[in-house]
Structure formats: structure tokens, C-alpha cells
Amino acid sequence: MSRHLNVAMGQLGPIQRADSRTAVVKRLCTMMREAKSLGAQIIVYPELALTTFFPRWYIDDVQELHSFYETSMPNIATQPLFDLARQLEIGFYLGYAELAREADGLHRYNTAILVNTRGEIVDKYRKVHLPGHSEHEPWRRFQHLEKRYFEPGPGFHVRRAFGGVMGMALCNDRRWAETYRVLALQGCEMVFIGYNTPVHNAPAPQHDDLSLFHNQLSLQAGAYQNGMWAVGVAKAGLEEGVDSIGGSCIVAPSGEVVARCITKDDEVQLARCDLDWCAVYKRTTFNFDLHRQPHAYGLITEKKGETLAADGTQWGVDR
Ligand code: CDT
């Protein structure tokens, strides 16, 4: 028996600050039509897929800042995407900035939703690992203010959808082993991960040449070590003067890349993913019940700044 899911990546090229939501949704719809024509059952879009990557700017004016967030979903600008999904009977994953009015006030999240083939939101995820910094740092060529503009979500969870057990994560989450493992411990068979990754990493410019490699390394390791599919989708290219990596790819539970985007523009690529390929890994090499040793993993007590290098560097404190 096999459970195939045809998954499309809807990689986006750059979105400039002046580009309207309407124009972006039009691009997303064009890719959705192409994905459907290729036989896709779901299309995966990037993180913060409706606007330019605004955390690159220090924005003092709250009204201006909040213009990058969505206060409801769907909304007038995004409704055409939901309508098209229902019409074409195709699902999608979409990342966006969420401004949520909760009982105790306004909260800002870096969010992704999973939408079924009837155009209904069936799951929502709020990004856990927020990279960058929270204060203006003028020495940088551009800012990365996710820590200022978002608060971390509550955690990772899975959802039964599209014939399997699905998980969601966002960008920096893909670099953390915990992301995949926490999902895999809940039985995750496929994780969707949208991202925006500048080529230039200001605190560690010596990593710039490795940015594509680290992207793929993280996705491949996460997929293999947890017996799951990983679908990573970029917003790529030169956006407001900042170059971001492409490299969107679909990784099988074997750790092999089975599909990849080759441009840094709007691009659709597809893979036929057998969710049953997860089982052999989950039953053998990564049979958690049989081989994990949780008693050995709880020895480290975490206290920020207490991990000392030989030269006295405090890893949790230094940049
Ligand atoms: N969006 C996002 O999470 N980007 C980060 C950039 C890291 S540099 C601050 C990433 O991990 O790709």
C-alpha cells in the first residue's frame, strides 16, 4: 500500500515594499494554477509570503509597522487565494505576519496556516524560534528584528490532513533539531517550512558562502533523523537591496532531495511523496520506542549564559 501526496513548492521571488497584497496574491494564484496543472494536491508557499521581509527595517511608527500584519485570515486581499483553492480543490500552506487581538491585548506572531482542498483553514502554527535581535543595531547593513516584531508561539503540533500526519514550522525553526524531533515524537510524516534567509549573516559573515548548504543540510538531517518528509520553500532573490537564498527543496525520509527550485524567482516544482516511506525509518533505525534513551537526555540543566567555553566565553551571552 502507498499513500502518495503530490506536493508543490510555490517559491516566491522578491516582494518589494511598494508591492500591494493584491499583486502578491495574484502571483500566488498563478503558481497555484500551475501547481494544479502539474497534479499537485497542495502547494507550499514561503514565510511572510504576503509582504516584503519587513524585519529588515527598524520601524518606530506602530501604525506603519502594523500595516505589514494581517488582522484576519482570510481577508479581502487573500480571499481570492482561498476561493481558487476551493475551486481547484488544492490545499496550501501560507506564512504571514499575524496581529491577533486576544483577551489581554494585541499580540504579534510570525504565523503559518494550513488550508484544505475546500479552502478551509485546518491548522495554524506560530513560529517558535525567532532569530535576530530586538533593538536597532546601526552597525548592520540591514536589521533582523524578528525578536522585536514577534513573540514566540506556544510550540509544535501535528494535524491529520492530506492523508497523513502533518507538521508546520517556519524558517529559523528548520535549523533546530528539536523542531523535527518534537514533531516526530507526535508521529509527523511531513513538515512544511517556509523561509526568508538573507545570504548575508551580519554577526557571522564567514557563514555567507555556506548559507545554501546550511539550508539543505538542516532539511536533510531533520528529515532523515526523524523519518519524515521535509518541504522547505523560500522567498528568494534581491528584495529591497537584500539578497536572499532560494534553494527550495523537498526532502524524503531517506534524507535525499527529490525536487528542488533552480531560480530565485517565482517557481513551481513538484514531487510525488509517498507518506508510507516514513514507516521503514520509524520502524527501524529511528524507532523511538526501541532505541531512544530519554533517561540520558535529561542530564543538562539549562541556565542562560552558563555554558562556558575553554576560554571563558559564555555562549549564551556572546553574539
Ligand atoms: N526568517 C528567518 O528566520 N531567517 C533566519 C535568518 C537568520 S540570520 C538572523 C534563518 O534562520 O534563515
UniProtKB/TrEMBL annotation:
Q: Example GO molecular function term?
A: hydrolase activity, acting on carbon-nitrogen (but not peptide) bonds, in linear amides
Q: Which domain of life is it from?
A: Bacteria
- Name all CN hydrolase domain ranges: 5-275
Question: Could you tell me the keywords of this UniProt record?
Answer: Hydrolase
What PANTHER family does the database record attribute to this sequence?
A: NITRILASE C965.09-RELATED (PTHR43674)
Q: Which Pfam families match?
A: CN_hydrolase
List, alphabetically, the InterPro entries matched.
Answer: Aliph_Amidase/BUP (IPR050345), C-N_Hydrolase (IPR003010), C-N_Hydrolase_sf (IPR036526)
Protein name, UniProt field: N-carbamoyl-D-amino acid hydrolase
